[in-house]
Specification:
Blueprint: H1 21-28, E1 32-36, E2 39-42, H2 44-63, E3 67-68, E4 74-76, H3 78-83, H4 85-89, E5 94-97, E6 103-106, H5 111-121, E7 130-139, E8 154-164, H6 167-187, E9 192-196, E10 206-213, E11 219-223, E12 229-231, E13 254-257, H7 264-271, E14 279-286, E15 289-296, H8 303-310, E16 316-317, H9 320-327, E17 344-347, E18 357-360, E19 366-371, E20 381-382, E21 402-416, H10 418-422, E22 426-428, E23 434-436, E24 438-445, H11 446-456, E25 458-459, E26 462-463, E27 474-478, H12 484-499, E28 504-506, H13 513-523, E29 527-531, E30 539-544, E31 549-554, H14 558-565
Parallel strand pairs: 3-7, 15-17, 17-20, 27-28, 27-29
Antiparallel strand pairs: 1-2, 4-6, 5-6, 7-8, 8-24, 9-10, 10-21, 11-12, 11-21, 13-19, 14-15, 14-16, 18-19, 21-24, 22-23, 25-26, 29-30, 30-31
Helix pairs in contact: 1-11, 2-6, 2-11
This protein binds zinc ion (ZN).
Zinc ion binds at residues 224, 226, 228, 394, 396-397, 399.
Length: 568
């Protein structure tokens, strides 16, 4: 393939719309172009990588006995009414009307469509288990599309669905799928971890996410050396169970003067205690009621957990005026002691470890020390409220958790009978009795994977493609295309390699060497043959993009050397 006649538009500057390296590099190196917010074209080089990822995914799906199908993108919304997902999916479901005013959705995932197929065409236990998959564009009306193809409104995904007679059979397929996903990511040359996850809008009983590790990934992972890993959003904060905070001497609490000190840092610094010796009291309004939340001074409220604990998606902080009205003191001096009965007091379970604590006095410029729960104030209920953090203890082995970031590329779910029960999809067992199918579903983001690979493999100069998913195996760079011998050597090598099935790009553009070398680094093809002045001495240079190592090779040996490096 010749660069001069290819659509590989590169540019030097970082596009202003891009926040993270993969998005910048995909635009700059001409892999993708934006059509509109969250909607992208894959240009020839980008699509080559997509196709290579698809091939690996297909091979691994077929290897565990999955069957490839192709379902429609256009779905009548009645099927979402049947499954109950029209409500739960909410505004992210893309809806449109046809000329007869019927409502359709652009498929976000295909649980409903595939469940209808099973309902009609897999009636007997004898035909189970089965697993079907497809590779298709999916649609989600993201409120805030960002990070290029990582959070797009249209994206390419592999989705698979399995049907079983019982949980045991589902478990077997679930483990096979986990193995297939591991092999896919490993074959793509990426480091990853598997985390326990929330089932979210898909629903179901158990789910795991596959995270490609990357410093700018949108997910934060807490993980342990024992292999346990969890998405920080769901992690429960766990501290040493033997750690007791404060002391209960039996004496009543005392009031301390803390003039103008309204933050945890100010108060703990002034009193010379650790921030966690203080307990924060945060006041929220839910409906007509006010709630006080108690959390350790060194922790933050996790809003998702708060919404779950309150059952109110519209829960909000009290305004400063409302705080004065509720407690009699300005912001920063709230505490649980003496709060009116009608304010519900909810505490994070970490508060149980406090024998005594320092809290706001509900009085301007004052805090209380030696406050004891149960004696000095009531706790109405305990709820998991706070963000877990690095150093919290692993629930499996008890060792401190480390923190890393990742891009989610795969998500597998045990659905159980969630869809089959609501959509009345049943099979007939050996006794002639009908049961709802037990189901699993398994998503893998193909376009996301291309971005995740770049997120993990790039440097200051550009992309550093893993060999298995690079758009091209080799770049041939004739430095001066006006030198006939140089250009002829380049084209001869191109022909010889293409005959052997190697993907070769020749940069035959009449550009300055500076531009060509910069573009070569930017586009990140793993191997580069530079044909320049040394050709007079019968030599070319072989450059390794990942290590920046250069080998001088006699021109008559270059074919063999390359074939050896690109094993296939
Ligand atoms: Zn552990």
């Amino acid at each position: 393939m010749r660069w001069s006649k290819s659509c590989i538009p590169t540019f030097k500057e970082d596009p202003s719309e891009a926040e993270i390296p993969s998005h910048k590099l995909m635009l700059r190196s001409g892999l993708i172009r934006k059509l509109t917010s969250g909607v992208y074209t894959f240009l020839p080089m980008g699509y080559r990588t997509v196709r290579k990822i698809e091939k690996i995914v297909r091979e691994e799906m077929n290897a565990i006995g999955c069957q490839e199908v192709l379902m429609p993108i256009l779905h009548p919304t009645e099927i979402y009414e049947e499954s109950g997902r029209l409500e739960t999916f909410g505004p992210e479901l893309f809806k449109l009307k046809d000329s007869r005013d019927r409502t359709f959705a652009l498929g976000p995932t295909h649980e409903e469509v595939i469940t209808m197929i099973a309902r009609d065409d897999m009636r007997s236990y004898r035909s189970l288990p089965q697993c079907l998959y497809q590779i298709l564009s999916k649609f989600r009306d993201e409120i805030r599309p960002r990070y290029g193809v990582i959070r797009a409104r249209e994206f390419i995904m592999k989705d698979a669905y399995s049907f079983h007679v019982d949980d045991e059979s589902l478990d077997e397929t679930y483990r096979k799928m986990e193995g297939a996903y591991r092999r896919i990511i490993e074959r793509c040359g990426l480091e990853y971890c598997i985390v326990e996850a929330d089932s979210g809008y898909i629903g179901g009983e158990e789910s795991h996410e596959f995270m490609v590790l990357a410093g700018n990934g949108e997910s934060t992972i807490l993980s342990s050396t024992c292999g346990y890993a969890v998405n920080q959003e769901q992690a429960v904060a766990k501290e040493d169970p033997d750690r007791r905070v404060g002391e209960n001497s039996g004496d009543p609490y005392i009031e301390l003067s803390t003039p103008g000190m309204a933050t945890i840092d100010e108060v703990s610094g002034f009193l010379k205690v650790e921030p966690y010796a203080l307990v924060k009291t945060l006041l929220y309004r839910t409906g007509e009621k006010t709630a006080a939340l108690l959390i350790p001074g060194d922790r933050e409220i996790n809003d998702i957990k708060l919404v779950n604990a309150s059952g109110d998606p519209d829960i909000r902080f009290l305004t400063p005026d409302e705080i004065v009205k509720a407690t009699g003191a300005p912001v920063g001096f709230s505490g649980p002691v003496g709060l009116p009965e009608e304010i519900e007091i909810i505490a994070d379970p970490l508060i149980e470890a406090y024998e005594s604590m320092i809290v706001g006095a509900n009085k301007k410029d004052a805090h209380l020390k030696g406050v004891v729960q149960g004696r000095d104030f009531r706790i109405d209920r305990y709820e998991d409220l706070v963000w877990a953090k690095e150093g919290d203890l692993c629930p499996k082995c008890g060792e401190p958790l480390g923190m890393s970031r990742g891009v989610e590329v795969g998500h597998i779910f045990k659905l159980g009978d969630k869809y089959s029960a609501s959509m009345d999809a049943t099979f007939i067992d050996e006794k002639g009795e009908m049961h709802p199918f037990i189901m699993g579903c398994y998503g893998f983001g193909i376009s996301r994977m291309a971005a995740a690979a770049i997120e993990q493999h790039h440097d200051d100069d550009g992309i550093v493609w893993p060999a298995s998913i690079t758009p091209m195996d080799l770049l041939i760079l004739p430095v001066n295309v006006n030198n006939e011998e140089v250009l002829e050597t380049a084209f001869r090598l191109e022909r010889e390699l293409e005959e052997r099935g190697i993907d070769v790009l020749v940069d035959d553009r009449d550009q300055s060497p500076g531009v060509k070398f910069k573009d070569a680094d930017l586009t990140g093809i793993p191997l580069r043959v530079t044909i320049g002045r040394k050709l007079k001495e019968g030599k070319v240079e072989l450059f390794h993009r990942a290590t920046r190592e250069i080998e001088e090779i006699p021109v008559e040996k270059v074919l063999d050397v390359i074939l050896e490096k690109i094993e296939r």
